[in-house]
Amino acid sequence: MQNEEFVNGLLDFIKRSPTPFHAVQTMVEKLENAGYKRLTEKESWDVNQQGRYFVTRNDSSIIAFRLNRPLLEHGIQMVGAHTDSPCLKVKPNPEMVDNQYLQLGVEVYGGALLNPWFDRDLSLAGRVSYLNEDGQIGHELIDWQKAIAVVPSLAIHLDREANENRKINKQTDLPPVLMRLPENSPEDVSFNDLLLDLVNAQLDATENGRHTATRVLDYELSFYDVQEPAVVGLNDDFIASARLDNLLSCYTGLMALLDNDGEQNALLVCNDHEEVGSVSASGAQGNFLKSVLNRLCGSDEGMSRTMCSSLMVSADNAHAIHPNYTDKHDANHGPIINDGPVIKVNASQRYATNSESGAMFKYCCELADVPVQSFVVRSDMGCGSTIGPITANELGVRTVDVGVPTFAMHSIRELAGRMDAYYLYRVLRHCFS
C-alpha cells in the first residue's frame, strides 16, 4: 500500500469513527471483508491452526488475530492501541432549559484540552439501548452526522480577562446549546424522545426487520467535531483531525495486520477506556486480552511459554517538540514530525520499553527502512502512560511503547505527520511478519 492510499484510508476511518463503538464497527467490517471469522466470548471456540479470527467486547474493544504456527514454540507478535479519545459525554438526565435555549449537561471524558471545544460545530453519536415492542432490549449505534450543537464562547466585551486569565468551569461553561425552543413550548423537553425518533428512523431504514423501539432505556453518547479530517500544510506535511490519539494507531495496526502475509502469529488489540485509566471490563486492566490468549494457549504453562517468545508493541501517540514551546521538552529527546515513529522511555515505568524491547523495535525499523526517534519527558515534569505497562504487567510479555509525534494532543483537533503515519504502518507490518 502506498502512502497516499494509506492516508486516504486513515482519514476515512477516522471520519466513520466518531466514538469507540463506531471505530470497532468499522474495524469489524474491514476484518470480515478480509475473511476474518467472528468469535463470541460466550461460546466455545473451534480455532483452526491456520485461522483468521476476531472477537469484540462491549462493542467498543476488539481483538483480531491470525494463527500460522504453534504458539508455544513461536509466540505471537502483538500490537496494542486504544479506541477512546477525550470528549464531552452526555449525562443520564441531561436536559437544561434556560431562556428557551435547550442545552445538554455533559461530563468531561479523559484529559481533554477544553478551550478548543468552544465555537465548534458539534454532532452527537454513540450507543443507545432501547426496549422494543416485543419487550426485548435492543442496541443501536446512532450518529446525527450533522452539526446539531455548539458551546458558544462568552464575548470578549463581557470578559475582558478572557485572553489572560480564562478559567473553564466544567459544570457551567460546557453544556452545548442545541436549539431555541418555540415560544410557549413546555420546558420539560425529553432528550430520550429525540433519541427514540432517531433510533426508529434508523431501524426503519434497515432491512433487518427489527421491531420498533418503544422506549429508550440508556445510552452512551459523545459530542464530536463535524469538521472532517484533512491533509494540511503548504507541502501537505500534516494530518489534521479529531481523535488522532489514538485512532491513528488503531487503523495503522489493523492495516498492518491485514496487509501482511507472513508466517508469524499476529494479534491486534484495541481497548476502550485508556483515557480514563483502563479500569473496566473492556479496558486494558480488564481480562479481555488475557482471556483470549488463555483460550488460545490452553493452559497457564502454555501461556507462560507463549509470552516468552512474544512481543507487544503498544502504539499510542507521542508529544512532538512544539516550536513555540521548546522548553517543555528534553533538548535531546524532542521528536520531530515526519522524522519517524518514536520509542517512548521512562525510568519510572510509565512506559514499558526496556533495552531489549527497544532494540527489537529499532531493528524492525531498520529492516523496514523507517527512521526512528526517542522520547523521554523532562526530568522535572510528570509523564503520561499507555496500555503498555498495564499489558506487560498482566501478561509478563516484552513490551515496547511507541507512537507518532503529535501536536495538540487531547485537543478537539490534533496534528500529526502524513509520513509518520505511513512509517508506523510499514514498521508494524514488518513486526507482524
Offer a quick outline of the entry.
InterPro entries: Peptidase_M18, Peptidase_M18_dom2. Its cofactor is Zn(2+). Helix content is 28%, strand content 27%.
Structural description of this entry:
- Keywords: Aminopeptidase, Hydrolase, Metal-binding, Metalloprotease, Protease, Zinc.
- It comes from Mariprofundus micogutta.
- GO terms for molecular function: aminopeptidase activity; metallopeptidase activity; zinc ion binding.
- It is a single chain.
- This protein has 433 residues and is α/β, with parallel strands linked by helices.
- It has two domains: 274 residues, Aminopeptidase; 139 residues, Aminopeptidase i, Domain 2 (Roll), CATH 2.30.250.10.
- It has eleven helices and 20 strands.
- It has a nine-stranded mixed β-sheet, sandwiched between helices.
- Helix 9 links the parallel strand 16 and strand 17.
Features:
433 residues, alpha/beta, Aminopeptidase, six-stranded antiparallel beta sheet, 11 helices, 20 strands, 28% helix
